[in-house]
Amino acid sequence: MKTISHSSLVLVRNCLQQYRCSYVELRRSRSVAPALAFGGLWDKALTAWHWGKDSKDRLFRGHAVLLMHPNELQRETAKAMLVGYSTLWGDSNIETVATQLEFTSPIVHPETGEEHPEYVYTGVLDGVVRMPDGRLLGLESKTSSEDITPGSLYWERVTTLDPQVSMYLPGAKAAGFDIEGILYDVAKKPALRPGKHETASGFAERVMRDMQGRMGFYFQRQEVVRLESEARRYQQDLWDYACILSDAERLSRWPRNPDRCRQFGRACDYLGVCTGTASLDDDFLFETRRRGKAA
Ligand code: SF4
Questions:
Q1: Where are the domains of the chain?
Q2: Interval 56-73: pLDDT, tens
Q3: Phi/psi class of residue 54: alpha, beta or left (left: φ > 0; alpha: ψ in -120 to 50)?
Q4: What distance in Å separates the CA atoms of residue 159 and residue 154, rounded to the nearest whole number?
Q5: Model's pTM, two decimal places?
Q6: Which of 85, 44, 36, 33 is nearest to 66 (CA)?
Q7: How many angstroms separate the alpha carbon of residue 258 from the centre of ligand 1?
Q8: Is the minimum distance from the CB of 13 to ligand 1 under 6 angstroms?
Q9: How many CB atoms lie within 10 A of CB 83?
Q10: Ligand 1 atom having least distance to the Cα of 16
Q11: Cα separation of 96 and 254, whole Å?
């Protein structure tokens, strides 16, 4: 079976040519966008952090992971954020049950119950936790540059539309965990920027000072559940995307979307390929990704 993941769907929605380069030809740029690198770093640190026995142990485990990161500014910023995160959540009564839970679940038509013949959904849930009242929840950790305070647009989107949340419930069940919802855990990336002559550690100290007194601005957690009607709408979306991909592969139709060549101040990794100035076969620019990963 072929697989669809949250990351591949982002590209399908963005530009089918971008999807083809990344998920059909399996060619990925050798340079990783700083925002993606930071998100990956935070995930790795938290995976270690969750298995600590208390706030101090958790901070130690998270920092041990961060120490290995070669980018000093990202490393020091993440360390500062982890101090704030540990202060807020490190001694909570939430038990870690699993981390980095990989799952595969069928793509099911919401009306007929039919399973898609070509595609299944694969994903990775950051964790499964047991709440103080005994309930099992999935854990999804994110970093964001947006306003994450309660009532913000960020939470409006997460609680109604976030497609990952819709897939985590059946996905975790398929992996043997009967979760009742998702504990959505967000850390806001500092908007502060290092001064011209400021060291990375000096900058990190300034970030920590900024966090003190307004922890809720930087860290938020909310339980998210999906209404049956929302889950069905998402099932239909997923089914339709699987059909779009089936057709695109069968007919070799991968239209470009010039509206997406530049996003968030960064050019698409395949811009040179689309404009004819670079080749997807160039091993200096691209490497071949292994098949079968959920990313
Ligand atoms: S450069 Fe533009 S058209 Fe080409 S893959 Fe990227 S987003 Fe699509």
A1: 2-31+256-288, 94-239
A2: 999 999 999 999 888 899
A3: beta
A4: 9
A5: 0.84
A6: 44
A7: 6
A8: no
A9: 19
A10: 8
A11: 42
Q: 32 falls in which pLDDT band (50, 70, 90)?
A: confident
pLDDT, tens digit, for every residue of 148-175?
999 999 999 888 777 778 888 888 988 9
Banded pLDDT at 231 (limits 50, 70, 90): confident
End-to-end CA, the chain: 16
Pocket test for ligand 1, best of 22, 25, 254, 274 (most atoms within 8 A of CB): 274
Share of the chain above pLDDT 70, in %: 98
Q: How far apart are CA 88 and CA 220, in angstroms?
A: 10
| 294 pLDDT tier (thresholds 50, 70, 90) | very low
Best probe residue, ligand 1, of 270, 277, 280, 285 (max atoms within 8 Å of C-beta): 270
